Amino acid sequence: MKQLRAIRVLMGALFLLGVAVCLLLGTHVHPMARMAGAVQILVSASAVSAGVALFWLAVTFVFGRLYCASVCPVGVLSDIFLRVRRRIPRLNRPFTFRARSRLDVPLLWIYVVCVMVGLSVVVFAVQPYNIARNMASAMRPALTEATWGTLGLGAAVGIATGVVSFIIIAVTSVLRGREFCTRWCPLGTALGIVQERALMHIEFDPDRCRSCGLCEARCRAQAIKMVSRYVDQTRCVRCFDCVADCPNGAIKYQLNRNRPASPLMRKVGSKQ
User: Fold this and answer.
1) Which terminal Cβ of the chain has fewer Cβ within 10 Å, N or C?
2) pLDDT in tens, 221-268
3) What is the pLDDT of residues 197-219, one digit of tens each?
4) Domain span at residue 219?
5) Is the same domain home to 169 and 234?
6) Under a CB-based contact definition with an 8 Å cutoff, are residues 78 and 181 in contact?
7) Residue 157 DSSP symbol
8) What is the DSSP letter of 226?
């Protein structure tokens, strides 16, 4: 199971590099750069973009949020800041379970309405690939011509949006892990809704679990509640840290559900 995390880290590094090359140097530099940009989810009327979105919805339904784990540039950037967190003793505190936000679905609907009415400024500001584009515009201002330029706004707006986004993601990642991806990102919320019914999921093996709490402490999505052996499938970002780090092999990425280790308690009636 440890190989799953290694594959996720490798794929994340490759896709982030590909997106960086795609945005800063262009798709002509290397086929990987062209592919890294082409597989990003972009909400638009384009048939190609719609096909990519449907592809990732299908992948999420089977395997879970692999897009968030390794392909989304914002998600991978958040993981990099998490590595920085672990090197700073004052910040490297164990994560604890946090209940699902009540704002994630309403924010998703607000985002959908903005897309439907053509409020492009919201799409350009909060869509993950556009966030990466805004960040890259600090080094290549021409990138904003395809987005903010259509609204009659200059490159300075795109650069400022990218700087603000970078700061927000850096701070939330260091303090709260993948909170941006699990609470504020509309695409993350949409994929999380699909993932709740995914065929593959993260599951406790109650016969192996020794209640050490390491899984909850390591969960960057703060989606594991060790006391009740609970994994919030809507917020799990498939980082596979819990699967790789569990000393007893009690957490697995699998197809079937496990049964409780002991029978449910029930009231025993008195003898007649």
Assistant:
1) C
2) 999 999 989 999 999 999 999 999 999 999 999 987 666 544 444 444
3) 999 999 999 889 999 999 999 99
4) 201-254
5) no
6) yes
7) H
8) G
Q: Do residue 178 and residue 230 come from a single domain?
A: no
> Do both 128 and 162 map to the same domain?
yes
Tell me how far apart the alpha carbons of residues 66 and 246 are, in angstroms, rounded to a whole number.
21
pLDDT above 90: residue 51 = no
68: Cβ–Cβ under 8 A, 6 or more apart, which residues? 75, 181, 188, 191, 237, 238
Distance, CA of 115 to CA of 10 (rounded, Å): 33
Residue 266 inside a domain? The answer is: no
DSSP state of 227: G
Looking at the structure, do residues 157 and 215 belong to the same domain, yes or no?
no
Written as six digits, the tokens of 32 are 């990987």
- pLDDT surpassing 60 at residue 90: yes
158 and 222 fall within a common domain: no
Alpha-helical segments (H) within 224-271? 241-245
